[in-house]
Write a structure and sequence with these properties.
alpha+beta; Multidrug-efflux Transporter Regulator, Chain: A, Domain 2; about 100 residues; Chaperone modulator CbpM; 5 strands
């Protein structure tokens, strides 16, 4: 995409459980600072692995963090409340997927 004399490139990356991203990449993808992301790790909302002094996250953390941020902004809940809501929403999604599978039999 070109705008005037400036070229803007867009890239899409598919992130899943097998994907690994750094703290910096997660912060950039979710528009948060490192302290905010680490608070989510401390709350148990997302998990990080330490590899050679670098925090690595699963690609699914991007969706989880973005969802938590929306819950906090839209509903005014704290991290603990967002974590509970996220857990319940994910359980609903799993149950709906199970129902769909059972209905196809």
């Amino acid at each position: 995409m070109t705008q005037g004399n400036h070229s803007t490139e867009m890239a899409a990356i598919i992130l899943d459980e097998g994907s690994q991203i750094t703290l910096r990449e997660l912060c950039s993808a979710c528009a948060l600072n490192a302290e905010q992301v680490i608070a989510l790790v401390d709350e148990g909302i997302i998990e990080a692995r330490q590899v050679s002094g670098t925090m690595l996250f699963s690609g699914v953390c991007v969706g989880r963090v973005r969802r938590v941020v929306r819950l906090e902004q839209d509903l005014g809940v704290n991290h603990a409340g967002a974590a509970l809501a996220l857990e319940l929403l994910e359980e609903i999604e799993q149950l709906r997927a199970r129902i769909r599978r059972l209905e196809r039999r």
